[in-house]
Amino acid sequence: MNYTGVREVEVVVVGAGQAGLAAAFHLRRVGFEPDRDFVVLDHSPRPGGAWQFRWPTLTFEKVHGMHALPGMELTGADPLRPSSEVIGAYFERYERTFGLRVHRPVNVMAVREGGGPPPWTDPAGTLGRGRLLVATSEGDYAARALINATGTWDRPFWPRFPGQEMFGGRQLHSSEYRGPEDFRGARIVVVGGGTSAVQQLMEIAPVAAATTWVTRRPPVFREGPFDAERGRAAVALVEERVRQGLPPRSVVSVTGLQMTEAVRRAREGGVLERLPLFARLTPTGVSWDDGRTVEADVILYATGFRAAVDHLAPLHLREPGGGIQMDGTRTLRDPRVHLVGYGPSASTIGANRAGRAAVGDIRRLIAATTSRPVDAATELAGSLAS
């Protein structure tokens, strides 16, 4: 049955980055048809997920740990080409090859329980029995399940410091970084201990008048490859926080910074000499409680991101600790809602696995509430797909 202004589907996938495309692949693989049984909604202007917004000087050779999407390897990429172009073209080819029919640009404003407050209208009360209502810029959807793959790019985290409004120079977040030329001849303070902080600092240092790196905790550099054992250990640490209903920590906080040859040279050259976090900003720079000061023209906050899940607020999924408690990819407060690319699946390989797991769980949920069967052969095929 169709309702005025509401289109019914089995599953809505929000986001077409790595996690969203992986989920869409597995939905299609087990028999769901795009634009009939499920829709993929993406608010970005073109394919590529968050990668399309990366700074132009982040070439593909500088990208660490980019795991291929299921069913199609990324081959023949020019290592000197910007990663935004390489991965954007790869995602576009992937969408076209598997006919995923991503709707873009589409903004998802809110996800609510069926039969909730306006603008929802459901005179018969049917939607209130098991449907989620997804309000979007292209119209409203009623879905039996939702796979949220919105990542973090849209929620850059800006720390707050005393005196921040008095600083006379420029302040920007690493998400706004476009390359080192914007900082030529300037004195730069880079705030943050993650991979973006290190990469951007190393690019800026050769053209800047001076650079200062500050972090909340001493950085930990990881020697050797990030093998399967290390990966499992890192995922386990993040999973434990999510299981407790706490906000997930950043990836680098549990994996450490990869020690590449470029990083080694930067450390030997003094570029990566780290200072503890300053106490305040001044009109001309930053200062510490011990009296130390550094003059600066620019403060670059490479301070990470938070999960972009505000549109899920009407479902009240958050725990008192501020996070969303989950069992695998399924939120404990609402088994119809799955988060992929969140917490332990916030990596390219983790996103693939999470997409597959979410689809398997959703198929069982739908089979339990409708007459749609779960075929054993396609269930096995989906479980074997990487």
Automatic annotation (TrEMBL):
One Pfam family, short name: Pyr_redox_3
Origin superkingdom: Bacteria
Keyword field: Oxidoreductase
Keyword Plastid attributed: no
UniProt cross-references to InterPro entries, sorted A to Z: Auxin_biosynth/cation_transpt, FAD/NAD-bd_sf
Keyword Oxidoreductase among UniProt keywords: yes
Protein name listed in UniProt: NAD(P)/FAD-dependent oxidoreductase
Source species: Streptomyces caniferus
